[in-house]
Amino acid sequence: MIGNDIIDLSQSVLSYSPHRRKRWLQKIASSEELSLLKNWPEQLWPDILWAIKESVFKCQSRQQYSTKLIPHHIVLTSLHPADNGNAHGEVHFGSNSYYVRLHMSDELIHASASSTEDVVSWHWIKWGQIFDADDQSTLLRKKFLDHLQNQSDDIWHLSSNQEGLPIVSGPNGDSDKLSFSHHGQFGAWAYLPSHLFSFK
């Protein structure tokens, strides 16, 4: 399973007052989780945690569909810095463990989560000011199909399951190992290539 979340920092908790950011952080984080974020600026902590927890929630929703995210039920247990604004770690959600990847820049935070350590392909695009959420969703899905078309000459299609979660169809059948997200000026996707492409 896989999930992802993207945050446009120009429209995020980063713009809140320090007092309001602290109150928001108290709603979503434990002191143990905060101790794992010491390598990053404190003003980014709420957005980092929210992106991670939202991506894990979307990942688990593939197995057990839910529309209610309770942040304290999703527990970040490790987070390690890597190169180029990236990080990786682990999250527990109930009895399940998830692997998380994080990318941060001056403009955005993007997180992806998966239930296995398989290679994840995750990308983001910047589209500027598209205010309608349906237009954002349509453009994001078009860009994703263009991305797949660039990976192979096969024909790809997107549909949704009964909960509205995306399904991609290709030469190897259908896969639900993908996730979309959009916020502000950015859209993003994540998928497991091993479930779409046959490697030789």
Description:
The longest helix has 19 residues, at 133-151. This protein has helices at residues 18-28, 31-35, 45-61, 133-151, and strands at residues 2-8, 74-81, 86-93, 96-104, 108-114, 121-126, 157-160, 166-170, 173-175, 178-183, 186-191. The relative contact order is 0.19. The chain is built from 4 helices and 11 strands, in the order βαααβββββαβββββ. The two termini are 23 Å apart. A hairpin with a 2-residue loop joins strand 3 and strand 4. The protein is globular, with a radius of gyration of 17 Å. A 5-stranded antiparallel beta sheet has the order 1-5-4-3-2, covered by helices on one side. A 3-stranded antiparallel beta sheet has the order 6-11-10, covered by helices on one side. A 3-stranded antiparallel beta sheet has the order 7-8-9, with no helix packed on it. The chain is α+β, with helices and mostly antiparallel strands and 200 residues long.
